[in-house]
Structures are given as structure tokens and as C-alpha cells.
Amino acid sequence: MVTFWGGKRKTLVTAQLHYLFMSSTWILPDDLAVPDFPADHPGPGAPVPQHWSKCFGCGDDQPTGLGMEFTTGEGLEVIGRFEVAKRYQGGPGFIHGGILMTAFDEAQGMACNAALRSAVVTAHLGIDFARPIPLGAVLELRSRVEGTVRRKVYTRSEARIVDGPLADPDVVVGSSYGLFIVVGHEHFEKGKDFVDGMPTGDQDISAV
Ligand SMILES: CCCCCCCCCCCC(=O)SCCNC(=O)CCNC(=O)[C@H](O)C(C)(C)COP(=O)(O)OP(=O)(O)OC[C@H]1O[C@@H](n2cnc3c(N)ncnc32)[C@H](O)[C@@H]1OP(=O)(O)O
């Protein structure tokens, strides 16, 4: 069918089939456990601290990083924001897709940490790029844990432009599904010879 249509139309059909395939592969397991709401949760609107000051996603001691800032949302939702700086450019005038993926990675990791109070690392991430995102846009990513199975944490996130060019809080410009794995201190001990700086805060779970 795809070969029969050919040309530009072939490309379009292939892209649509790919989108359907990608979306349909994210199927939550039947034995998913929804985490309990933390008893000490501060409620919506509270700042969520960076987990590591040198982190490319959220660190305030990482000048080239995204500098994402997080607050708690409703329920177990975590809301992250950052402005698309010129250095994040891919195609002329628009964000690089890998930067958006990085932002989703960070946002969904923070949602895991807020819900489970455990360190996690990313095992799998899938992104749907729905709209081009211009430089100067302020992106808001709303992320949540959908549930867990043993150490596996299933997450979702959506991005919207809430300020700057093409802002429209009703339009989802990208979405993401991700599998994170709960890890212990030993995971980060493997990086102690390479670490840049010394973790000091409560959220710095590295054993170095
Ligand atoms: C204060 C803190 C801040 C926390 C806040 C953090 C926010 C930071 C956000 C950035 C996060 C990152 O970028 S982290 C950096 C990028 N990620 C990484 O570097 C991870 C590299 N990969 C690994 O280190 C490893 O593969 C692990 C840890 C993910 C898993 O290894 P493991 O510990 O030996 O566990 P393993 O038995 O293999 O897997 C456990 C279960 O997960 C499943 N599983 C494992 N990988 C996959 C996979 N890709 N796709 C599907 N399923 C998978 C297995 O089948 C198994 O299922 P079952 O048998 O139970 O059914």
C-alpha cells in the first residue's frame, strides 16, 4: 500500500503508521500498582528541589543546562518549566528534538522521585513530537507516575507552550512515555571516579 502511493504521499503515510505503532506499543501491564499518596506531600504549587546541582536538566550549577524548575501539581503530578534558549536550536528557529527528549527525561524522573522518594534511572523513553517548538517558547511539562511493577516505574508526560511565541496552553506540542528503574546507592558508586563536583544536599543520593 505504501509503495503504491509513492512520492511525498508515501512519506506521509509511513510517518502516520509509525506514529500509530509507537503509541500503541506503550501498554501498561495488568499488575500495575498505583503508589500511595505520600503522607508528607506538600500539596499543589510547592517547589520541588533540584536532585543534583550539576544535573544537565535541573542543576543550578550547570550553566549550559536546561535549568528546569519544578513544582508539585495536583495529585502525584510534577510540573516542570524551562525557556527554549537559542543554544537548544535544531532546525532553524526551532528546538532540537533531543533537547525536548532530555526535558521529558528529567521531568519524568522527577515525577518518580516525588511519588516514590527513590532514586531512579531511565530504562526506556518514547517521544511523540506533535508540533514544532520555537526558540523563546516557555515549555511546561506535566509528568506523573502511572504505576509500578517491582522496581519498574511507568510514567507519562505532556508538554505545552505556556508563554512566548506560539503559546497556547490547550495544545500539546509533545508527549512522552517512559520506563524508569528504582536503583540504590551502588548504581552511582560506579560513577565516583568521574563525578564533577561533590553532592551535598538531601536530594543528592550519590554515595561519592
Ligand atoms: C534523588 C534521586 C533523584 C531521582 C530523580 C532523577 C531525575 C533524573 C532524570 C534523568 C535520568 C537519567 O537520565 S538516568 C541516565 C540514563 N539511564 C541510564 O544510564 C541507565 C542505564 N541502564 C542501567 O543502568 C540498567 O540497565 C538498569 C539500572 C536500568 C537496569 O539494570 P538492573 O538494575 O540490573 O535491572 P534489571 O534486572 O536488568 O531490570 C529490572 C527490570 O526492568 C526491566 N528492564 C530493564 N531495562 C529495560 C528496558 N530498557 N526496557 C524494558 N524493560 C527493562 C527488566 O526486564 C526487569 O523487569 P522485571 O524482571 O522486573 O519484569
Automatic annotation (TrEMBL):
UniProt protein name: Acyl-coenzyme A thioesterase THEM4
GO molecular function: hydrolase activity
Enzyme Commission number(s) of this protein: 3.1.2.2
Subcellular locations according to the entry: Cell projection, Ruffle membrane; Cytoplasm; Membrane
Gene Ontology BP terms: fatty acid metabolic process
Record's keyword terms, sorted: Apoptosis, Cell membrane, Cell projection, Cytoplasm, Fatty acid metabolism, Hydrolase, Lipid metabolism, Membrane, Transit peptide
Domain of life from the UniProt record: Bacteria
Originating species: Rhodococcus coprophilus
Every Thioesterase domain range: 93-164
Catalysed reaction equations from the record: octanoyl-CoA + H2O = octanoate + CoA + H(+); (5Z,8Z,11Z,14Z)-eicosatetraenoyl-CoA + H2O = (5Z,8Z,11Z,14Z)-eicosatetraenoate + CoA + H(+); (9Z)-octadecenoyl-CoA + H2O = (9Z)-octadecenoate + CoA + H(+); decanoyl-CoA + H2O = decanoate + CoA + H(+)
GO CC entries: cytoplasm; membrane
Entry's family note: Belongs to the THEM4/THEM5 thioesterase family.
Claim: Transit peptide is one of the keywords in the record: yes
Enzyme class: hydrolase
Main location as per UniProt: membrane
Membrane topology summary: Peripheral membrane protein
